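User: Here's a chain of 706 residues. Predict its fold as tokens.
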Amino acid sequence: MSRRVKILFVSSSFTLIIYLLRRYRRYLLRKTRQTSVTQGSLINIPSSSSSSSGISVNKRFLNQLLVIIRIFNPRFGSDAFFLLITHVTTLISRTFLSIYIARLEGAIVKSLVQRNLRDFIRTICIFLTVAVPSSFINSLIRYTESKLALAFRTKLTRYAYDSYFRNQTYFRVSNLDSRLLTPDQNLTDDIETFASTLTHLFSQLTKPFLDVAIITWTLVRMVQQKKTARGLREVPILTIMVIFLTFWALRKLSPRFGRLVSEEAKRRGLLRFAHTRIIANAEEIAFFDGHEVEKNWILKLYNQLREQTNLIIKKKLWFIMLEQFLMKYFWHSCGMIFIAIPLLSYDGPPTTDDPIGDPLGISTRTQEFTVSKNLLSSGADAVERIISSYKEIAELAGRTNRVYTMLHVFDECANERYRRISMTIDDHTSIDMKRKVILNQQAEGQIIESDENIIVENVPIITPNGDIIVESLSLKIIPTMHVLITGPNGCGKSSFFRLIRGLWPIYSGRLYRPNPSNFFLIPQKPYMCPGTLRDQIIYPHTIDQTFANDDQLMEMLHYVELQYIVQREGGLNAERDWKDILSGGEKQRLGLARMFYHKPKYALLDECTSAVSIDVEGKIYERAKQLGISLLTITHRPSLWAYHTHLLQFNGEGQWTFEVLNTEKRLTLKGEKERLEAQLAGVPAIQQRLSELCHLLGEDTIDNCK
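Assistant: Prediction complete.
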């Protein structure tokens, strides 16, 4: 087979492969569209103000990066500063070692051409000796890079945690703001990958720039020694032209990896959040056999992630092919030409250290060629890393955007600036919505700290979604009052607690209230923190902050008739998984023990005794009143009415009343209501029996039977 036929065959095969790949890609796209039409569109992921569509290497990215770098900027004398100096020093040392090793390889080739065994063995021994510190420095570069990434991650994580737990940001981010869908992933994976990517990119850029500078200087010195050779001007100009052409081509044809990586991280976070939700609600899902629904939901999220990952893989296929062609084969060919220019154009006397055995200086030229080739290859690798790092910089832009957005949202939520992003619903879906306020509007209400009283002046109760529960609420509660709060579900009872505690924003009006430390909430399902039994009683205090000794804690447990649990579990310092060990009633009583420990001015009790017997809850309420604790109680138990002085009642339609509680009158009305309900409950049975009698008598209708 002739050479032309071979070339034609290879070219045709390559063209056919490209054509088949493009046809297969179109087939996959068509199939994906058909599947999406058949199964319905995937879940709509709302985008925040920092949408991924605008993520790229630009001024905005640089500003975001500078803001984050200022957070973990290593100060002089710190461990991070020492690691940074060590890392840079090892990078510089590695560059000089690379040049020295290139010269050693040239000397080895020269000794082989000269067939000088002694010089060959001596050079090999030197090479192996230098290899020991060179290997250590290579390992030290990776070590300092990992340690530096860990140091940066630690400082950034601590800063993020300080912001996350400041001014109840952890609550506001998830309940009052919707820009961060997965703050857990932002605080863990995103910070870790950002610190690792940034540190790795620093190494990938610092060493190549050093290599290019030092290797260029070395090559120029070598060319200058050939005074009659050409190339001192031509080679640098041609090299710059080749590098610029390569960078321009890759820059124009590079996909937007920053946007792609950021979107992939977002979808990965949603998938992990879905798994977390299933774990948290596993019992309810198992009771209803809802595994098929959850499975379909998980598969939809996974398909979204798979499609995004597949898109990145496809983008990388063609980009890496172009990158490899330009920076491996094209550059290698150009490098051989650039090396040949000074060697072929040299017309001076031959340079040799052996005029008798090598009068033409072949071994010297071979040595110079080998050294030049190795140096130029190292320089080309350095420039390749610099240019190919654009892809990593684009990925860093995506990770930087996620971390910056997280910190920006934390700061805005801490300063009560929230943004809600509406979720899209199918057009054919009809939902009766309540009256809403405009989302994202600034809360203009005032919260003024008072000494003791709670005064609410024309304050609306508005949910984070914008639903107006109560248009205007005005009342005054003083410490001697004990308020019973009633009403149907969703009328604003628990919302009132969130409002006076400051968890929800106040859009208008004024709220006078004591310092938040004077409020203590006990929900229906008290939170059991990790730690000992002592930690459960004094929560949220720590051991260092506690002011009660063991006898006082035992007395508090006695108030709620829970003293037996100390002996059962092995003492106050016993560590257990209290959420699973204690029963519902025990957890509620342990939550009430916290109230006796902290002795707040106002206790916010939200169905906190639903699993406690009536006699025990009566003793608890009576003891709390003796200690001077004002009780604000949400309950459906008539047995607790006697322990309250006032009634705040919501009707579920935006109306409310606040009045003195007349327990006897209310109990009378309650008894009459129950009697009427009992009488009406028998009406269906009477009607059914009457129908049966009409049927036995052969009557057609109940009226005829009558």
